[in-house]
Design a protein that fits this description.
Helices cover 28% and strands 26% of the residues. The protein is of the alpha+beta class and 405 residues long. It folds into three domains: 9-96, Rossmann fold (3-Layer(aba) Sandwich); 126-190, ATP-grasp fold, A domain (Dna Ligase, domain 1), CATH 3.30.1490.20; 195-403, 2-Layer Sandwich (D-amino Acid Aminotransferase, Chain A, domain 1), CATH 3.30.470.
């Protein structure tokens, strides 16, 4: 007998375009949707059953008031770390399904995450938390190059690489990174060299194990100063299975030890020249940029549905058996390196056969901002190819075949 969810309510923290699939899936299975954020123009507010468009997802007290007023059965931060801790606190206060706030904070705060990995001796590295603009400490010389990151932001905002050549700018780089931090804290850590593509993907953790995970290749800007800005993911990954199994084993150990009990997770991993995996981040939520949609097309495993049902049903378990497509799919952020006005989104004929679906974020006539971080994307396009080498090569040159005016 199929379980019905028609009497359930879910609070979705965020109604941006990439979060719409979760809202649509909840409505599709009969759940009443309540969307909350402070962006009235977000499309999620137009399709939700109830909308709160003037409350920040970081305002825990107000979000909790909404949750209690609406008598929700679940809270979900889909595709974004920012509100994941809020969702966890709401779940704890209302005794509804969710992970502990401590586990979520450890995974979403870069300093706490590095500290946890070092303490557990899972992955030891140099790192320091900084709370104000300071000059470079000469004792850090041996760890150069370094990378500076806000402890709590995403989309490459405020991320900088520090080398011998730009040490004189260190204080200014710290200042910029602090500006992009919600908590006004940054972390400096070793810059780890990588070989081959960065590994990206999403998975689902339950019963102390990774029930499902699907890996892809991550693509990053090659322009100087923008090399930490992601713009695409293609699936499946071309890394060998043995290496990906190593990654799975490490991710599983981390999620077990941090106290994560159940839910979707997003990952970023690099392979060092030695061949050893290095975990950059584990986000306790689905990936953004339509990654769960792309993974579904590639595997027939619906992580969007799993996250929605898992958020409201304490007995839910993901039991899907993957059915892998012979095709290759990619999720690509539509972007421009020039400030301009959007007239339309069109594709040259030579690539039109590979366009599976376009998900625009901006309306025609909107201002386009130069793509310095993921939040400046114009939209998303899902691509479909029959050859892995071709999809990888096309992604790297795709932007010159897309027109916005």
């Amino acid at each position: 007998m199929l379980k019905t969810y028609s009497n359930k309510k879910i609070l979705l923290l965020g109604g941006a375009a990439f979060q719409v699939p979760a809202i649509e899936k909840a409505k599709e299975i009969g759940i009443k949707t309540i969307v909350c954020d402070n962006r009235p123009d977000n499309p999620g507010h137009r399709i939700a059953d109830i909308s709160y468009s003037n409350v920040s997802t970081l305002d825990i007290e107000k979000v909790l008031d909404i949750a209690q007023k609406e008598q929700i059965h679940g809270a979900l931060s889909f595709g974004s770390d920012v509100a994941a801790r809020t969702a966890a606190i709401v779940a704890k206060e209302l005794n509804i399904p969710g992970n502990s706030p401590t586990s979520i904070e450890t995974l979403t705060n870069k300093h706490l995450f590095r500290s946890f990995l070092n303490k557990e001796k899972i992955q030891e590295s140099f790192y320091k938390e900084i709370i104000e603009p300071i000059s470079f400490d000469q004792s850090w010389n041996e760890f150069l190059p370094l990378i500076i990151k806000p402890v709590d932001s995403s989309g490459s905002k405020g991320v900088h690489k520090v080398t011998h050549e730009n040490l004189s700018q260190f204080k200014e780089l710290i200042k910029n990174s602090l500006f992009h931090s919600i908590q006004k804290k940054v972390i400096i850590e070793e810059f780890i060299e990588k070989v081959d593509y960065q590994i990206c993907g999403d998975g689902y953790f339950q019963e102390g194990k990774i029930a499902f995970v699907h890996y892809g290749n991550g693509y990053f800007n090659e322009q100087e100063g923008l090399e930490f800005t992601p713009y695409a993911e293609s699936f499946p990954s071309h890394h060998p299975k043995e290496r990906l199994q190593q990654v799975t084993n490490i991710l599983e150990e981390i999620l077990q030890k941090v106290g994560f009990t159940q839910g979707a997770f997003n990952l970023d991993v690099i392979i060092r020249p030695s061949g050893k995996p290095y975990i950059i981040e584990i986000g306790p939520r689905n990936g953004g940029n339509y990654i769960p949609t792309t993974i579904y097309l590639n595997t027939n495993v619906n992580l969007i549905e799993a996250s929605v049902k898992g958020a409201i049903d304490p007995s839910y378990k993901l039991r899907s058996t993957p059915s892998y497509s012979k095709s290759f799919y990619a999720s690509y952020m539509l972007h421009s390196f020039e400030n301009n006005k959007l007239n339309s989104i069109t594709f040259d004929k030579c690539i039109s056969q590979y366009i599976f679906k376009v998900n625009p974020y901006l309306e025609n006539g909107s201002e386009i901002q130069s793509f310095t971080s993921a939040n400046k994307a114009i939209g998303n396009v899902i691509l479909k190819f029959e050859d892995q080498k071709l999809i990888e090569a096309t992604i790297k040159s795709l932007n010159k075949f897309i027109n916005y005016n």
